[in-house]
Amino acid sequence: MKVRIGIGIIAFFAVIAIVGPWLNDLLGVGPWKIDYDAISQAPSGEHLLGTTSQGTDVLAQMIAGTRNSMVVGSVAAIIGVVLAVVLGVTAGFFGGKVDAVLSFVTNMFLVLPVLPLTLIVAGYVQDTGPVTIALIIGLFGWAPGARTLRAQTLSLRRRDFVMAMRMVGETRARLIFVEVLPHLAGWISAMFLHLVLGAVLAEAGLAFLGISSADTVSWGTIIDQARQVAMLNGMWWWFVPPGLCIALLGTATGLVNFGIDEVMNPRLRTADIKAMRKALA
Amino acid sequence: MKQGKGRFLTRRVAFYVATAWSAITLNFLIPRLMPGDPTSVIVRQLQKQSGESIPPEAVEAIQKLFGDPRAGLLQQYWDYLGSVARLDFGLSISRFPTPVGELLGAGLPWTLLLVGTTTLLAFAIGTGLGIAAGWKPGGRLDGFLSPLSTFLSALPYFWVALIALYVFGLVLGWFPLGGGYDPDLYGRPGFLGSVLEHLVMPAATIVFSAFGGWLLGMRNMMITTVSEDYVLLGKAKGLSSGRVMFRYAARNALLPSVTGFAMAIGGVLGGALLTEIVFSYPGIGYLLYDAVSKRDYPLMQGVFLLTTLTVLLANFVADSVYVMIDPRTREAGR
Predict the structure, then answer these.
(1) Which one in A155, A253, B60, B86 has a CA-CA gap of 20 to 30 Å to A223?
(2) ipTM for the complex?
(3) Is this model's pTM higher than 0.80 or not?
């Protein structure tokens, strides 16, 4: 149930991200369209989430922003997952010197604080569009995942079925891709979701610090713009929705990860069994 | 026994020194990787922004950051290492000619106060509730706390801060709207009280958004530990449930949280920096905002170095605590 709600919320945002521009056309609004008759208006029938101090529609901005936030989230997560799999599985599978070097690099990135690191790079980049930001975030977000995958690969490598296949004479590539990787699928998908959320949060943080491009709108840029004006004028309809969307997405990834955790660590499943017993009694 | 502990810590020190060195080197390399002539680009941008001409000393300070093309890269690197060792981070551009080191020195105590109190509070509250939730998984408390903390830990710090500022500062007027203290009270008897008053809201928002993560981690470890045989034995012996819960289960479940502590401190610091901006709290975060919005690159790099080195230090402290409470690391060091 938890997992289904989580997947539902994620799917909802994904759909909005994909059909966003058409949805805005359908509603007859646009993120940059200015309604001079409705400046700083509270939610009404005409503007469902109200308008900003410039007279743009908050709902339209939210819909357009969903796309950019999701793009940053998924691009960064893909980069992060790929790096984590390559570095983590390689280190765990080959061991020895390869492991020593890769683990050292991983541990290093693990202790370096991500926000200052991202900021110092993003601060110098001239182009701060969503994809660039995603690249930078992905580049610094892989370390925790790599560490987990290394540990898991290390234990998988010594399991009987992998040993047996090795003795049969399977190639290394086949051992990694056919024997080891499928067993890491749960970890990898949990990691992916975690990274999506982390990247959406990081993007919002960077936008909040003023690192975003002026012609894109994302959940982060909406909060940033609202902060400067909406706060003092009590325009809650402007700054509440973007944060709430981030929190919803976060809750959804958390719920799905609960499910994945319970599949991988059966001890955590006690919670469900008890709930089931209660329901049956 | 003692030797093992020592060896473990020596290896950690070596690791942190290497990490600090790479952060310092990264800080040196990033500006120098910029293509073209970044100095003149930035000077032009600054002039456009402020509308006045930039003093030649400031141009020199920017030039120093991106590297003097006349000196070789190795010579530059050597000079740079020397200045870092002397804690000389150059001159700030936005508050020219104040040295960056001076600005950082003024901001650091505020950030340490904020991050220190909130981290300890969030850790204590989260871990405590996590023990309770994990003791009876699926129980009423767990069913309420786990989803709640999933939601809370997904909230962006600065957004929570905005809402808090709006509700408690603006609408209700319970707390001051910003700053770290009341300037009228500086050096007067009420000063400490005003510092506390200004600390409440930023600290509360950070604790509010941070404790959920600790709770979930501790809960999951508790669930795993509670089903261990030694816990069952403790119960079978007829020990009080409080004793089994804290001395048997929680004590063992706590270990990963201490490691987690080290990794989380970087995230908490990032969140705290953003929270400071919302509340105009006079710490490092506020400096960082100024640095980014006014393109004050020397200050930005100073903030990067300071925060990174502080986090490394905090990690080392967490490692040392871990050695003290987990006897197995001593064995492993042998």
Answers:
(1) A253
(2) 0.78
(3) yes
